[in-house]
Design a protein that fits this description.
Chains A, B: Keywords: Glycosyltransferase, Ligase, Phosphoprotein, Pyridine nucleotide biosynthesis, Transferase. Two copies of one chain form a homodimer. With about 450 residues, chain A is an alpha/beta fold. In chain A, about 35% of the residues lie in helices and about 20% in strands. At the A-B interface, helix 1, helix 3, helix 6, helix 7 and helix 8 of A face helix 1, helix 3, helix 6, helix 7 and helix 8 of B.
Chain lengths: ~450, ~450
C-alpha cells in the first residue's frame, strides 16, 4: 500500500495565517507558548452525535507541512510576507505537542477534539489545514455512521466519488470506512488507505452491446458468475430471468438503480427464489440516504450502495469546527486563558481535559469538559484525549481498522436515542467544569 | 506560477470502470467507437441557471490519466482486473475528441456540457474523474455567481478553505474566481492558478497580545496602515477608535465578523467618518450567503468575505451531472443512438449540438439542444460547444481571466429573472430538436 503523494501541504493555508505570523515575528510575540483548541460549538441541526474522522490524514499533513523552495518562491514573488518571515518559514518544522480525540470517537458540542500546544507561530499556521481535514472528514463520517446504523448488519458500499471533488472523494471513502462502510468504489482509497473496493458494471456497458444478453454474457464470461448484474437498463423481470439463465443459480447479485426500490426488491426476490437463485443477493443504489436505507429495512435487500448523500454529508457537508487560541504565555512566563467576547460566537478559554461519563451499565451519560486537572477518576469516566504528536514526532498513528473498531464500540456506548434518525437534541449533554481565568 | 502536482489521476476512478473495461476487452466490444455525454437532468431546486466550471482542471486531469507502474501494481495486487486489461491500461493515452461548453458559460437542464468521442474503452474510464471535477467545480461556481450578482460591484473574497476538504478548497477558490470573486484566502490557489490572495489577521492575533492596542500596533507596524484590522474581539467602538488613532485616517479597512452586520456597518461607518477616516473600508464576514449579501446591499459595506456557504455550494454542494453513453458503433460500422429506458432517470440518445438562442436585443431566450446537424444559423443562435481535445491533444486550454470574462458576458445575456435569488424556474427553457433513433 503506497501513501498519498508527499507534496508539501504548506500552501493549503489561508493567507492571513502568514501575515499574522509576520506581524507577530516583528513584534516579538510569535514565540509565546500558545494553546489552540479545535472544537464544535454545536452539532449540525437535529443531529444527535458527531463522529471524529481525519485524524490520520491530519497527522500525515502536519509531517508534510514544510516550506520548500517552490513554496517560498510563491510567497516571495507574491509579496505575501517579508524576508524575515520567509527565513523563519524555511526552517519550519512543527516541534510542539498535539492531543486529540482518536479517530472514530463520537463527539458533542464543545468536545475539545484537538489541542495544539506550541509557540504561537508554529501553531497558528496549522489552523486552515487542520480545520479543512477535520471539518470535511468528520462531516462524512458523521453522515456515514447514521447510514451504517440504519442498515443494521447489511453492508453499505461507498460510491460517491463522482459527486464530489476528486480528492475529497478519496477522503470520503476513508471516512465512510471508519464509520462502518464495508467497501468503496474508489480505487485511490484502496491505493492510499487499503480500503476494500468493489464494483462491476454500469448502464453504458449494457448499451455498448447489441443486446442485454450479449452484455450479460460478456460480463459473466469475464468476471465470473459471482458478479453483480445491473438489471434495470430495459425491463427488470426479463433481465433477472436472463441473468439467472446465463449465470445459473450461483449468480452473485443483481443491482437495482431506479424505480421504487422496496417494491422492486420484493418482486425480484420472489422471482430469484422461484428461479432457484436463492443465494443471489439484491443490491440497491439510487440516491440513498439514511432515511431511505431505514425505509428499506423490511425489504429483502442485501446491500446498499450510497453516493451523493454520503459525500455531501447528508445535508451537512461541513462540521463548523473552529480553531481558537484558548491560552498563551504571559510576560512573566505563566500561561493565561484567553477568549474573545462575542455573544454569538462563544469560545471558552483555558486548556481542556475531556471525559465520557458512563453509568454503571456502561452507557454514556455526559461529555465532561473541564479546565485544569481532571477529577480523580471514579471508574466510570473514560478519558477522551490521547497524545497525537509529542515534541514534533507523530505518536498517534494507528490503523484504519483500529479507528473502525473504536467507532463501533464508542457508538454502542451511547444511549438508545442515538439510534433515532429524526431531528432531535444531542444525546449527551456537555458538562463544563472549572471557570476559565479571564484575561 | 507552478502547476498542480503532476501525479497520475488514473486511480481517482470507480472500480467498475475497469471491470467493465475488462469484460468489454474480452468480448471484443471495447473498441467500438462511442459517444458519451456529460449533462444535468435538472438544476438544483429553485435555481435559475447553473455555471460550468472545472473545464481547465478536467483537461489537466485527462493529460495526467496514465497507468504507471505504481498504479498498475495496485490493480494487479488487488486483483481488480486481469492481465490483458493491465497490459491495455499500461499503454493508455486518451486519443479521442472532446467538445464542451467553455468554462464560465451558464447552463440549463440537458445542456450537453461535455461530449467525449473515442473507443468505449478510452472514454468509459474517464467517467468518474470528469464527473468529480465538473460536479464539484460547477456547484461552487453556480453558488458563487449568485453571490457576486447579489454583491453588485462590491468585491467578494473567497475564504472557505477551512470548511471543505483541503484540495476541494483550492478548486473552490478557482471556481469562485471564474464566477466573479476578486480574491481568495487560499495560498495554493495563488500557486497553482494565479488567483489573487488576501488576508490580514484573526482573533487569535489580538488575543496573543497583552492588549488590543499592542496587537493593532504590531499589525500596523508590520503590514502598514493599509491593513485590515479585525475590530470585534472585545468592543467594536473602542477598537475602531483605537485603530484610527494608531493608523491614522489612512487605515485601509476594518473587518466585522459577528453581530448584526447591517446595523454595525452603519454605526462603524458613522464613527469612521467622524474620525476623518472617510476612505477606510468596511469588510464583513460571518456565515454570509447570497441572501445575506443581498440584505446588506443598503448597508455601507465595501466587501464581503464568504466562507462556508461558498464552498458548500450554498445548499447545493454537487450538481448531479451524469455521464451517459448516447451513441456507439454498430456491427456495420454505423453509429447508433442509445439510451436506457428508465422513467425516473431520463437520458436522450444521440450526438448533440447546443445553441443559445438570443432575441434581437441580444437577450437569451432558449437553450436549443438537438441531434444531428445544427440548423442554419439565423444570426441569433450562439453555438455553445467548443473543441477541448482533438485526437488526444488538448486544444481548449485558456486563461482563468478568459473564463471569468465569459461568465460575466454570458450572465449578462440572461433575462432579468436570472437576477432573482428566490426559488423559481430555470430562466431558459431547453428546446429539444430532432428525435433520437432508438436502438
Amino acid at each position: 500500500m503506497t501513501r498519498a503523494p508527499a507534496a508539501s501541504t504548506a500552501l493549503l493555508t489561508d493567507h492571513y495565517e502568514l501575515t499574522m505570523l509576520q506581524a507577530a515575528l516583528a513584534a516579538g510575540t510569535a514565540h509565546r507558548r500558545s494553546v489552540f483548541e479545535l472544537f464544535p460549538r454545536r452539532l449540525p441541526e437535529g443531529r444527535r452525535y458527531g463522529v471524529v474522522a481525519g485524524v490520520g490524514r491530519a497527522l500525515d499533513a502536519i509531517e508534510r507541512f514544510r516550506f520548500d523552495d517552490d513554496v517560498l518562491a510563491v510567497l516571495r514573488d507574491g509579496e505575501v510576507v517579508d524576508q524575515p518571515t520567509l527565513d523563519w518559514l524555511a526552517d519550519y518544522r512543527f516541534s510542539g505537542d498535539v492531543w486529540g480525540y482518536p479517530e472514530g470517537e463520537v463527539y458533542f458540542p464543545y468536545s475539545p477534539l484537538v489541542i495544539v500546544e506550541a509557540s504561537f507561530a508554529e501553531a497558528v499556521v496549522l489552523e486552515t489545514l487542520l480545520l479543512s481535514i477535520y471539518n470535511h472528514d468528520s462531516a462524512i463520517a458523521s453522515a456515514a455512521s447514521r447510514m451504517t446504523m440504519a442498515a443494521h448488519d447489511r453492508p453499505c458500499i461507498e460510491m460517491g466519488a463522482r459527486r464530489t471533488h476528486e480528492e475529497a472523494a478519496v477522503a470520503s471513502a476513508r471516512a465512510a470506512y471508519v464509520a462502518g462502510f464495508t467497501a468503496t468504489s474508489n480505487l485511490a482509497a484502496r491505493q492510499r488507505y487499503g480500503v476494500p473496493t468493489a464494483g462491476t458494471s454500469a448502464h453504458s456497458f449494457t448499451l455498448l452491446h447489441d443486446s442485454e444478453e450479449d452484455a450479460f454474457r460478456a460480463q459473466i464470461s469475464s468476471l465470473g458468475t459471482g458478479t453483480t448484474l445491473l438489471v434495470d437498463t430495459y425491463d427488470v423481470t426479463e433481465a433477472v430471468r436472463l441473468g439467472v439463465e446465463l449465470a445459473g443459480p450461483d449468480l452473485g447479485a443483481v443491482r437495482l438503480d431506479s424505480g421504487d426500490l422496496g417494491d422492486l426488491a420484493h418482486q425480484v426476490r420472489r422471482q430469484l427464489d422461484e428461479l432457484g437463485a436463492t443465494k443471489t443477493r439484491i443490491v440497491v443504489t439510487s440516491d440513498l440516504d439514511e432515511f431511505a436505507i431505514a425505509a428499506l429495512g423490511a425489504a429483502p435487500v442485501d446491500g446498499y450502495g450510497v453516493g451523493t448523500e454520503l459525500v455531501t454529508g447528508s445535508g451537512h457537508p461541513t462540521c463548523g469546527f473552529v480553531y481558537k487560541l484558548v491560552a498563551r504565555e504571559d510576560d512573566d512566563g505563566s500561561m493565561v486563558s484567553v477568549a474573545k467576547k462575542s455573544k454569538d460566537k462563544i469560545s471558552i478559554g483555558g486548556r481542556k481535559y475531556a471525559l465520557r461519563r458512563l453509568n454503571h451499565r456502561g452507557v454514556a451519560e455526559a461529555e465532561v469538559v473541564g479546565i485544569g486537572e481532571p477529577p480523580v477518576n471514579d471508574g466510570n469516566d473514560r478519558p477522551l484525549l490521547v497524545p497525537l504528536v509529542r515534541g514534533g514526532e507523530v505518536v498517534g498513528r494507528e490503523s484504519l481498522e483500529a479507528a473502525r473498531a473504536r467507532h463501533r464500540s464508542s457508538r454502542e456506548e451511547l444511549p438508545l436515542t442515538a439510534r433515532m434518525l429524526s431531528k432531535g437534541e444531542t444525546v449527551l449533554e456537555t458538562i463544563h467544569i472549572g471557570e476559565p481565568e479571564h484575561h
